[in-house]
């Protein structure tokens, strides 16, 4: 079994810092939650690099909320449930679609500037949405604009203290209650950060895979530390691969937004043939998992490592205006998307599962909350609808703070937790080598397509790395690797257990969806293993 703590410690030997609310992470979820909490309490927000480095920053497409008179929360609900393939929580989806517009208005009040047309908020459409309801900023730089506005607000607030370059090693629990975190400072020293409430906003886990649209910091830390603390982890088999990441020599797997297809771009194989009509009636705007698998099928049929995304039939002015970041990034690698087809391939993008929460964002561990991609609120189901992630972070961030305000103050007495596993050995193999091997295992055995033999082999490969939990870990890279390994094990074990195909989870040996047997969630609990939970959509 994975141990409760990554390092040996005695809190009585460590410096103690106390705060009302600890926020771990600085994407849209962390910043927004910290700002809301700071209205009436002291907040410490921890980020392992800097405030501006998060998945949110790289979000291009936009934020989904109903603003058009032709649209309604009912339509948004239907689209979300359709994408989620029977594993959404109806109640959580209702919360999202009804409270999303007010959340967006609050972002605007906090200084976010969304694009407008003729004085009205500009709305676009993305895959599997039935109406135009995606707000965007600076064309395709929505996430960056939101983080910019929120970071400026947070920096000005006297109740928010931001700790850059700090690393949360583990959550500290006492009697089943989360009382704060064990934190490593930039210089290597450790402290106990005691908090009346702790909110995980640590983002996703794209770095578990060799090819990802996520930044280096997306290593699944939040899920791993919550799992070790005893929280229920749910739906980890559902990893969304974005169908269209730039696949070009010398370039990173840069995201080519869903909105490009929403504005008319078509997919072509290397022979120049448009192919989506062979896979789905919605063509390029089919759900992401279907488009991603269709692309892989075409790549295999044509023995290629990519397909093309073609928006050359649209006016050059529109493309440059609507997608300035994509245009400029591709141009820097010698690709002019107004006249050249864009080589693309799928890449790991979003984690649907995570720390199970209720409708107030609270986990199964008292006083521990989760918000954003690290959470499993029930909104996303088996496959996230495009642009629902930013909305979810805002809506549930507000609810989390409302719930925290209802909590009685945590008695600020001495917390005397100690843990000693008697670790003596240092890690034997270079962490950078281990990390690359881990990523390759996940791509090969637990990626877009899976089967029992692949998953079993992948699990065996991963288990060979388990001795890391008995080693003396001292550096951020070592903690990250332990967290990545934890998440890889959770994903592979749940993918092996779910013997059907649903949403983003595709089993070649069980290609059909089976509601009679599998319309249920898989919970993973450190001391119990896998536990089944019926979907409330049944």
TrEMBL record:
Obligatory cofactor(s): FAD
Localization of this protein: Cytoplasm
EC number of the protein: 1.4.3.16
InterPro entries to which the protein is assigned, alphabetical: FAD-dep_OxRdtase_2_FAD-bd, FAD/NAD-bd_sf, Fum_R/Succ_DH_flav-like_C_sf, Fum_Rdtase/Succ_DH_flav-like_C, NadB, Succ_DH/fumarate_Rdtase_cat_sf
Domain FAD-dependent oxidoreductase 2 FAD-binding: from-to ranges: 20-390
Oxidoreductase recorded as keyword: yes
Catalysed reactions, as listed in the record: L-aspartate + O2 = iminosuccinate + H2O2
Pathway it works in: Cofactor biosynthesis; NAD(+) biosynthesis; iminoaspartate from L-aspartate (oxidase route): step 1/1
Protein's job: Catalyzes the oxidation of L-aspartate to iminoaspartate.
Protein family (similarity comment): Belongs to the FAD-dependent oxidoreductase 2 family. NadB subfamily.
The protein's name: L-aspartate oxidase
Organism, scientific name: Paenibacillus tritici
Gene: nadB
């Amino acid at each position: 079994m994975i141990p409760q703590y990554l390092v040996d410690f005695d809190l009585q030997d460590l410096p103690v810092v106390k705060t009302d609310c600890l926020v771990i992470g600085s994407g849209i979820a962390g910043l927004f939650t910290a700002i809301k909490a700071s209205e009436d309490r002291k907040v410490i927000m921890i980020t392992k690099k800097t405030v501006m480095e998060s998945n949110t920053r790289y979000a291009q497409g936009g934020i989904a909320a109903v603003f058009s008179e032709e649209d309604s929360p009912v339509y948004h609900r239907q689209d979300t449930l359709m994408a989620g393939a029977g594993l959404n929580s109806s109640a959580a989806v209702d919360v999202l679609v009804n409270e999303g517009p007010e959340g967006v208005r609050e972002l605007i009040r906090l200084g976010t500037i969304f694009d407008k047309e003729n004085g009205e908020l500009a709305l676009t459409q993305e895959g599997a949405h039935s109406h135009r309801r995606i707000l965007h900023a600076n064309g395709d730089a929505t996430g960056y604009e939101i983080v910019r506005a929120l970071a400026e607000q947070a920096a000005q607030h006297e109740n928010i203290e931001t700790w850059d370059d700090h690393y949360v090693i583990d959550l500290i629990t006492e009697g089943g209650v989360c009382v704060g975190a064990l934190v490593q400072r930039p210089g290597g020293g450790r402290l106990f950060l005691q908090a009346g409430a702790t909110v995980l906003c640590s983002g996703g886990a794209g770095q578990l895979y060799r090819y990802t649209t996520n930044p280096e910091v997306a290593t699944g830390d939040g899920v791993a530390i919550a799992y070790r603390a005893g929280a229920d982890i749910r739906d980890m088999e559902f990893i969304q691969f974005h169908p269209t990441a730039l696949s070009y020599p010398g370039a990173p797997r840069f995201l080519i937004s869903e909105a490009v297809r929403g504005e008319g771009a078509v997919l072509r194989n290397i022979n120049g043939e448009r192919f989506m009509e062979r896979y789905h009636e919605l063509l390029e705007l089919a759900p992401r998992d279907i488009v991603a698998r269709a692309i892989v099928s075409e790549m295999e049929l044509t023995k290629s490592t990519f397909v093309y995304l073609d928006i050359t039939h649209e006016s050059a002015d529109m493309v440059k205006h609507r997608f300035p970041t994509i245009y400029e990034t591709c141009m820097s690698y010698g690709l002019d998307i107004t006249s050249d087809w864009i080589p693309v391939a799928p890449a790991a993008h979003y984690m649907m599962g995570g720390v199970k929460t209720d409708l107030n964002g609270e986990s199964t561990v008292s006083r521990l909350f989760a918000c954003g991609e690290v959470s499993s609120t029930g909104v996303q189901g088996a496959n996230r609808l495009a642009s629902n992630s930013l909305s979810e972070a805002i809506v549930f961030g507000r609810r989390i703070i409302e719930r925290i305000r209802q909590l009685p103050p945590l008695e600020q007495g001495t917390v005397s937790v100690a843990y000693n596993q008697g670790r003596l050995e240092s890690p034997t193999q270079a962490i950078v080598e281990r990390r690359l091997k881990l990523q390759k295992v996940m791509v090969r055995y637990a990626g877009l397509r899976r089967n029992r033999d692949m998953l079993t082999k992948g699990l065996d490969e991963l288990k060979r790395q388990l001795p890391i939990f008995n080693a003396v870990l001292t550096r951020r890279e070592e903690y990250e690797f332990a967290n990545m390994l934890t998440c890889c094990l959770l994903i592979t074990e749940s993918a092996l257990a779910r013997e059907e195909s649903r949403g983003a989870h595709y089993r070649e040996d069980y290609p059909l969806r089976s509601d009679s047997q599998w319309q249920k969630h898989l919970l993973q609990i450190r001391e119990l293993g896998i536990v089944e939970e019926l979907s409330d959509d049944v």
